[in-house]
Amino acid sequence: VSLVESGGGLVQPGGSLTLSCVGSGFNFADTGMAWVRLTPGKGPKWIAGISIRSTPAYDDSVKGRFTISRDNSKNTLYLQMTNLKPEDTAVYSCQGPGSRGRGTQVIVSS
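The chain above was modelled as a monomer; its predicted structure follows.
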């Protein structure tokens, strides 16, 4: 199983970013996927998930600001992030079957 994230970066408060995660080595279309947030000194925090039927679910901290989606033809998971806040600063990692990617860093700062 391989999960490779991209799309992170430095953004000002109120800005937007879209993260991507390409999965391989497993049947992507038949796998529920999720995004987790990694911050120093804390355990991973689940923030969004999507079922194999593309039904999304969100943690309250991101509901209304983040959108999770998937493109099974590209084995790719997305996280559209809007109205970003400094407290969204973290490494964002996608989670698949028994595995998690290394993540992509998001920094929200003016």
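Residues 32 and 53 are 9 Å apart (CA to CA).
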